[in-house]
Amino acid sequence: xxxxxxxMIKHISEPWYTHLTVHEPGxxxxxxxxxxxxxxxxxSNLVGQELIITNLPPIDGQIAPRALSxxxxxxxxxxxxxxxxxxxxxxxxxxEGLDKMLPGVTSLEDGVEIYLRFNRNDSxxxxxxxxxxxxx
Length: 136
Hints:
Layout: E1 8-11, H1 16-21, E2 33-37, E3 50-54, E4 69-81, H2 85-96, H3 98-101, H4 108-118, E5 126-134
Parallel strand pairs: 1-3
Antiparallel strand pairs: 2-5, 3-4, 4-5
Helix pairs in contact: 2-4
């Protein structure tokens, strides 16, 4: 397990940031998991780690001006392996569910294409589903 340290700032693009941080009672579009290709900090078991997620990329390691942010804690990580990134993403979305990872997306193929747009690492074969708990 990763030693819990000061919160790290991580960017999640819209509309996924809003689906993760905004919850209206009775509204079904609620993202609770974020998929990340295994590289950088995302290779670690981050369970227990606090993150500050933002809707704009950080600037010099700081929250960008005008960015929205929320504090979350990683409460679970499940890894998916595949012969290539497409296979790993397909497995992750099939098991975790589109409703938890990509609210509003209705087909597995569309979900895979969304992840592939963000992740063009041709040698990647592992992706993690990071489950978050909102702290704010």
